[in-house]
Amino acid sequence: MKSVIVGFGSIGKRHLENLINLGEKDIVLLRTYHSTLKDSGYDTVPVVTSMDDALALKPDAVIIANPTKLHMQTAIPVAEAGCSILMEKPISDSFSGIDTLKRALEIGGGRFLTGFHFRFNPGLRQAQKWLQENKIGKVVSAYVCWGEYLPDWHPWEDYRQSYAARADLGGGVVNTLCHPLDYLRWLLGEGIALNAAISNQGLSLDVEDTADIIAQYESGAQAHIHLDYMQRPGEHTLKIIGTEGMITWDNATTIARCYLAALNTWEEVQPPTGFVRNTMFMDEMRHFIKVARGETDPICTLDDGIAALEMTQAILQSARTGCSAKLRKSPN
Questions:
Q1: pLDDT tens sequence across 46-70
Q2: Are 226 and 145 in contact (CB under 8 A)?
Q3: What domains are there in the chain, each with its CATH number?
Q4: How much is the pTM?
């Protein structure tokens, strides 16, 4: 498979290394050289500096790992050329260009995977299995807390210049830490409305560094989602409360636990032996290779990416207006 990786920040570098480790050899980087990563160690990987040059190579697959603000202008010509796409989340910071991308994919015939890698987390997959088995009865509420201190993310760069901290690149905690918006929809069903408050008091950035969201779902469940760039030590945890028990998950350990109220017992599932954070990205890349080859359907589609985008936009709208924001009807 001939692959092009657009963007060579930390996630682009990870995807490159994972492709190589999976035995892929025909890889080209499309770079602007604005990345703060050191270039050493990748001198043998071919580089192009324009999309025209990249598409002239007739790639089968393109991995879009540049800043969020640039996703649509990158993806549309790629889709028109018939390439399959793995696009990092969020797919954009606005609805502009979404319909054009849909038409381009239909015309070009390529396939699309949204890069919500927590779909490959074994603890969250176990939580989904318990929910499908009705282990905790009807879900009433959920709580997600995800906070990490932004200045510690990439020690090699000034965090204030990172994509996560810049409005002009599509940053902010709502966009950057939007994974729970996807996996809660995956676990609880379609969202219908939300209320949100945001602030930027912690790091004095021009984007929000803290967000609190109350989301309502068609199932009748509601969720409180807390996101921040401030917590030390960091935390990323999930709790799902049902009429017959509770499910918990901790990203730090990947352990999923299920409390059965009728038996007053906990069931605990550990991650597979050898699991590390990169295992999710490796599994995602294996899946994308099969998607690009037409061997399987994407487990996280463009419509899934659009549904998450609807939530990020509704969060910012609610925070701006102080009113509840209804979600557009999400795709089936």
A1: 999 999 999 999 999 999 999 999 9
A2: yes
A3: 3-117 (3.40.50.720), 120-272+301-326 (3.30.360.10)
A4: 0.95
